[in-house]
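Archive maintenance. Older records in this collection stored only the sequence; we are now back-filling the structure field for every entry so that each record is complete. The fields below show one back-filled record exactly as it appears after the update. Entries are processed alphabetically, and UDP-galactopyranose mutase is next in the queue.

ARCHIVE ENTRY
Title: UDP-galactopyranose mutase
Organism field: Pelagicoccus albus
Length field: 379
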Amino acid sequence: MSKRILIVGAGFYGSVLARELTDAGCSCKLIERREQIGGNCFTRYNEEADCHQHVYGPHIFHTNSEEVWRYLTRFTKFNNFVNRPKSMSAGKLYSLPINLMTLYQVYGVNTPEEAKATIEKVRIPCDSPNNLEDWCLSQVGPEIYELLIKGYTMKQWRRDPKELPASIIKRLPIRFNFDDNYFRDRYQGIPEEGYTKIFERMLEGIDVELGVDFLADRDEWIRRFDHVVFTGPIDAFFNYTEGTLEYRSLRFESEILDTPDFQGNALINYGETQVPYTRIAEHKHFDLSYSKDKTLITREYSQEWQEGMERYYPVGTQENLDTLRRYQLLAKEAGLPVTFGGRLGQYKYFDMHQVIAAALTKAKRFLQDGFEVSDEEEN
Ligand code: UDP
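Back-filled structure field:
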């Protein structure tokens, strides 16, 4: 008899596994707490503004992986959107990520050589720049740090940048040329029909039930299946016995404006703390759709996660990583037929392409080695 697998959560991790395991002959059921599929990638078409609204924040797909790109293009066509965000600070706009145009705007330098010489003069060298502030000061100096990074980071994380790991910002390049493509991955774009369509196609023919709270009936669900893939928060799964994992949550304020183009770009960040939101997204630019005289914008505010809010960013402090470790040990000791996956299940700051790659790898492992393999190696 084919294995009966329960997948909890209809984001990328759960949906890719559901597709792969079903295609390999497993009998999969997927349940989702929300009334819709797609996790935080969920988009909804907005007729008034003629564009897809990124309901849980802007999602720009990018990857260097041929395998991930080939996989996803089975379910959608991508447009050729390229992310070139700007930052507003002290009444002026700056180019992002920090590149020669930014250095021209701040210091008036015109060439890579001039820019390098200026940065060499202003940077504050540091032997081991472990925290975010020391790392930025050692790379770009105080002026750019204050204008573009300090305020944004304090709003985003509500923590002193000295207490944050440098890894958060090391994702962002500093370039001495005019390349302002935020992600330099080989493949990039926004799904032409919105993200939700990808999930609809991916889950075709699979038994999906929405509005179901797995945790309310956890043991009964586990009993009824051979294996469970849980993509919700690992601390909630264990009823918070080892402590609560911290997250940053987001609050969105959306409005439709009577203008064809509000800010001329998909994303404008706000680098200073005087402005309470971190950025404004103008959704029609993601779709490259400019037909309507109206536009939909969303102001994004970062806030500490509390019960009842949606979780967005894991906060990678040592304390949280220690708590995570205790849950992973608990999961191992409990010996339950449950795999924890995705951003919430693994408490990892995954991007979409990384989640898809992780789910594809996991599906292969399940199919080759069986469902009893431990999660250990991947955490
Ligand atoms: N960041 C910043 N200023 C910006 C954009 C980003 O200081 O205008 C910093 C901030 O600390 C942020 C980190 O860089 O948390 C990573 O930014 P990214 O845009 O990669 O974050 P995400 O898109 O995941 O929110």
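Update note: The mean pLDDT is 95. The longest strand covers residues 247-257.
Entry marked complete.
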